[in-house]
C-alpha cells in the first residue's frame, strides 16, 4: 500500500470513469489547480455535506482557477444518481478497483464496532497546474473544510 503523496511531490497519475460518461486523467487538469477530494460513499451524511459544501463554493473555486473533483469507490452510475439527487456541481470519479485510492494512500484499514474493513480515509489534495501536490488535508472533518480548501486554492499562485 502506497503512502500519501507528500507536499512538493508529483501527483500520481490516474485515469478513471467519470460521472456523465467518459474518463478523466490527471493531464486533463494541466495548467489549472486541482482540488482532489477522496470520500467514502455517495449519499451518506458526511459525504453529502462535503459535496454540497464544495458545490456551494464551485464558482469561487472556478474564479481561483481551481477544479474540484471527488473520488470514491462508487460506480459512475451511482455518482450520476448522487449528483442529480443533490444538484451537485463537482465532477465525481469512480475507482471501483480501488487502484487509484491505493496509489494515493487513502485506502486504509478502518474499524467500526470492533470490525475491521478497508475503506477510504477522507482526504483532500490541492495540486498546482504542473501536477505538484501543494497541500494535503488527511482525516478531513467536513464542517468548514471546503472553505479552508478554497482559501488555500486562492493563495496558491
Run of helices and strands = EEEHHEHEHEEEEH
CATH architecture level-2 label:
3-Layer(aba) Sandwich
Could you tell me the mean pLDDT?
Answer: 95
Strand order in the largest sheet: 2-1-5-4-3-8-9
| Sheet with most strands | 7 strands, mixed
Which tags fit this structure?
single chain, 157 residues, alpha+beta, Glutaredoxin, seven-stranded mixed beta sheet, two-stranded antiparallel sheet, 9 strands, globular
Report on this structure.
With 157 residues, the protein is an alpha+beta fold. It has one domain (32-155): 3-Layer(aba) Sandwich (Glutaredoxin). Helices cover 29% and strands 29% of the residues. It is built from 5 helices and 9 strands, in the order βββααβαβαββββα. The protein has helices spanning 45-56, 58-63, 76-86, 99-103, 145-155, and strands spanning 15-18, 23-25, 33-38, 66-72, 91-94, 107-112, 115-120, 123-127, 133-137. A 7-stranded mixed β-sheet has the order 2-1-5-4-3-8-9. Strands 6-7 form a two-stranded antiparallel sheet. α3 links the parallel β4 and β5. The longest helix has 12 residues, at 45-56. The relative contact order is 0.24.
Topology of this protein?
Elements: E1 15-18, E2 23-25, E3 33-38, H1 45-56, H2 58-63, E4 66-72, H3 76-86, E5 91-94, H4 99-103, E6 107-112, E7 115-120, E8 123-127, E9 133-137, H5 145-155
Parallel strand pairs: 3-4, 4-5
Antiparallel strand pairs: 1-2, 1-5, 3-8, 6-7, 8-9
Give a concise summary.
This protein has 157 residues and is an alpha+beta fold.
Amino acid at each position: 500500500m502506497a503512502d500519501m503523496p507528500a507536499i512538493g511531490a508529483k501527483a500520481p497519475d490516474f485515469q478513471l470513469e467519470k460521472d456523465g460518461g467518459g474518463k478523466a486523467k490527471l493531464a486533463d487538469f494541466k495548467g489549472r489547480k486541482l482540488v482532489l477530494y477522496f470520500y467514502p460513499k455517495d449519499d451518506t451524511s458526511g459525504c453529502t455535506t462535503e459535496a454540497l459544501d464544495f458545490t456551494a463554493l464551485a464558482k469561487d473555486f472556478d474564479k481561483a482557477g481551481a477544479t474540484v473533483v471527488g473520488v470514491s469507490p462508487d460506480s459512475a452510475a451511482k455518482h450520476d444518481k448522487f449528483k442529480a439527487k443533490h444538484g451537485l456541481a463537482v465532477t465525481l470519479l469512480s475507482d471501483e478497483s480501488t487502484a487509484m485510492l491505493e496509489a494515493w494512500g487513502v485506502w486504509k484499514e478502518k474499524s467500526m464496532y470492533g470490525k475491521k474493513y478497508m475503506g477510504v480515509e477522507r482526504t483532500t489534495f490541492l495540486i498546482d497546474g504542473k501536477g505538484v501536490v501543494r497541500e494535503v488535508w488527511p482525516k478531513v472533518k467536513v464542517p468548514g473544510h471546503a472553505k479552508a480548501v478554497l482559501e488555500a486554492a486562492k493563495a496558491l499562485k
